[in-house]
Amino acid sequence: MWISGDDHSHDQPGAPLGRVSTISEVVPMDGANLATSAATPNVGNLSVTKSSRVHIGPKFVSVTQNLQNTEVVKDMPFPVYVWYIVKNSSRAEKLSCLVALLVLITCVTLIVFFAVQATNNPEDYIDVAPHEWNISRQMWLAQNFTSSSTTERFDPVRLVIIQHTVSPECSRFVLCAAELRNMQSWFIKYYNYDIPYNFIIGNDGRVYEGRGWGIEGAHTFTYNRCSLGIGFIGDYREELTVHSRVTELQIKRAKMLLEEGVKRGFLDTDYSVLGAKDLNGSASPGSNLYNAIRQWEHYDHINKWRNKTCEKMYGFVPIS
């Protein structure tokens, strides 16, 4: 039994077994009385009669004779200790702990999620396109934008103009589609017209529909009404430290597009291919791409269309 008091009369015959100055109440426990105080007493100063289960904080103390003579302390198992704490906590304390636990779990989950996302490389994704090479506006999720001007008066057109977009490269379908959406949004916002090219060749080698067949483009001043504009994604100026390089796949797919245009009647069988720089002061399509198209069968080395209007190209008599 723990008896309140601050003297040490237990050293004298007939006196109570022990006294601790901080004890405020006496509680029986396992055949012995356990005193609970506001401040935990020093175990070495306690005097307790025989008891097999004296609970002091997270410890169990077995007393055979006197706590001053024999002391055996063993750790309480952590789950048992946690359960003991929860069991003896107030409802408010339990709710606070639950909220704190939920916040901790949420934070850990978010950290793991963003860590995994940060390590993902776009190149790791499987490139699944809706078509092997011919991507329509619907496939790359283009905004609806109606162009009223057409090339109908000059169909089938006789001139194909090659340009470069001077925009970031894209090696996958999802990336090229995103780049086209960004490009289209920019032209709509600042110029209030659709993406300027009739077709765009991605760095993935696919052909992306811009304005499409039979629609007047906005790529080369004075020639838009009677030409087909094709833009290659990237910057092909070799004089730059970092520049795009045209690939064999891009060339192959561009020629496939032109063959389709002839079959569908939008492109003249004897069409001419020129770079934008052949018709105006532009650096487009860049030296790397320009050198490549000069090897094409339909490239116009004579440049018979320079400084000619669409009407003159077709021999139309001006309307007076």
TrEMBL record:
Domain N-acetylmuramoyl-L-alanine amidase: 146-286
SMART domains the record matches: Ami_2, PGRP
InterPro entries: Amidase/PGRP_sf, Amidase_domain, PGRP, PGRP_domain_met/bac
GO molecular function: N-acetylmuramoyl-L-alanine amidase activity; zinc ion binding
Domain of life: Eukaryota
UniProt KW keywords: Immunity, Innate immunity, Membrane, Transmembrane, Transmembrane helix
Gene3D superfamilies cross-referenced by the UniProt entry: Peptidoglycan recognition protein-like
One GO term of the biological process aspect: peptidoglycan catabolic process
Domain Peptidoglycan recognition protein family: start-end pairs: 135-280
Pfam families assigned: Amidase_2
Transmembrane segments: 95-116
UniProt similarity note: Belongs to the N-acetylmuramoyl-L-alanine amidase 2 family.
Quaternary data: Monomer.
Protein name: Peptidoglycan recognition protein
Taxonomic lineage: Eukaryota, Metazoa, Ecdysozoa, Arthropoda, Hexapoda
